[in-house]
Amino acid sequence: MTKELLAYYEQDREHDRLREGRGRLEFWRTQDVLRRLLPPAPARVLDVGGGPGVHAEWLAADGYDVELLDPIPLHVARAAELTGVTARPGDARHLPAPDESADVVLLLGPLYHLPDRAERVLALTEAQRVVRPGGLVAAATINRHAAVLDTVHLGHYLHEHLRQAAHAAAANGIMLSPVRGFSAYLHDPDEVPGEFADAGFPVVERYGLEGAFWLYGDVNDWLDDPERRALLLDAQRSMESVPSLLGVSGHLLTITHRAVLPSDQHRATGDVDDDAGDPARIV
Fold first, then answer.
1. Gene3D superfamilies given for it (predicted)?
2. Which of 247, 39, 257 minimizes the C-alpha distance to 141?
3. Partners of 253 in the beta sheet?
4. CA-CA-CA-CA dihedral for 108, 106, 237, 115, to nearest 10
C-alpha cells in the first residue's frame, strides 16, 4: 500500500466509478458473469479488495453471506454501512480468514496493484487456502493494451507523456499513471492462467468483460436505456470467451474452482477409511 495509492482511494472516487458513465458496463458485465456461475445463496462470499462495496451490496441483496476485506479505511467504513455486509481491513496476500472458510473468494481489484508476479501468485494462493473444496475463485485483471485503447478513446493520446506511459504499459505491463498518481499492473490475457496454475488452480475460464463496446462513443446512451442495455450485455455475452477478442476488453474476469480431492469428500461425508493404516494396502 503506497502513499500514492492510499491518497487516490481516500478521495472516494471508487464509490462512483462503477455506478456512473461507461464504468457501469464493467459493473453489469461482472454481475452478469458472476450470477451465472456463483453457487446458490446463502453461500459465504469473501470479497477481497472489495472497495466501498459496489459488488458486495448486490451480493448481499441477492441473499449471500458477504464479508468484505479492504486495506483502505474509507472503503471499509463505507462498506460497513451496507445492509448485510460485514467489512474489515485486510490484505489479499495475507487473508485474515481460516482455511476453507468461504464458498466464494472474489479478487475484483487486488491483482491490479501487485506488480510483482510472486505477490499476485501469493494472493491467489491465499484465495486457494481460504476457499472450500469445490468453491469458486474469481479474479479481475486489467488487459495489457487497455491504456493505449483508453487514451485514444479519451483523447489523451494527443499528449506525449500520456502516450509514452500507455506504450510503456503495453511493453512491460507496468502502468505509471500520471493522472491517478500510482502504478498498476496490466496483464497479457495469456499470462493469467499461468499465475492461477502456480497458485494451485490448473483449470480456468476467462471472460472479457466489456469487449470493444467500452470504446464506443455512444456506449452511455445504450447503458442509460434498459432495453438497449440488455441487448448490449447480450451482444458481449455472445463473444465473451472468444480467445482472439479477450484482450480488447478493458478487464478480464478469470474464474476457477478449488479441486475436490478424495480426502475432502471423506471429510464432507464423515467417511473414515478403515484400511488407511493397513500395511497390506502398501504396494
1. Vaccinia Virus protein VP39 (3.40.50.150)
2. 247
3. 140, 207
4. 40
Place of cell 505509471: 176
Contact between 141 and 192 under an 8 Å Cβ cutoff? The reply is: yes
What are the cell numbers at 156? 489523451
> pLDDT digit string (tens) for 24-39?
999 999 999 999 999 9
* Amino acid identity at 27: F
Q: Where are the domains of the chain?
A: 3-144+188-281
Q: Which residue do the cell numbers 478493458 mark? A: 250
What is the pLDDT, as a whole number, of residue 110? 97
Q: What are phi and psi of 263, to 5 degrees?
A: -65, -35
Segment (H or E) for 197: helix 192-198
**Fold entry, domain 3-144+188-281:** Rossmann fold (3.40.50)
Say if CB 97 and CB 130 are below 8 A apart: yes
- Residue 279: predicted pLDDT: 28
Contacts from 163-172 at CB under 8 Å and sequence distance 24+?
169/144, 170/144, 170/145
What is the residue-averaged pLDDT of the chain? 92
pLDDT tens digits, 150-159: 999 999 999 9
**Mean pLDDT, range 246-251, rounded to an integer:** 98
Q: Is the peptide bond before 279 cis (omega within 30 degrees of 0)?
A: no
Radius of gyration of the chain (CA): 20
- Cell digits of residue 51: 472497495
Q: From its phi and psi, is residue 181 left (phi > 0), alpha (psi between -120 and 50) or beta?
A: left
Tens digit of each residue's pLDDT (9 = 90 or more) over 185-205: 999 999 999 999 999 999 999
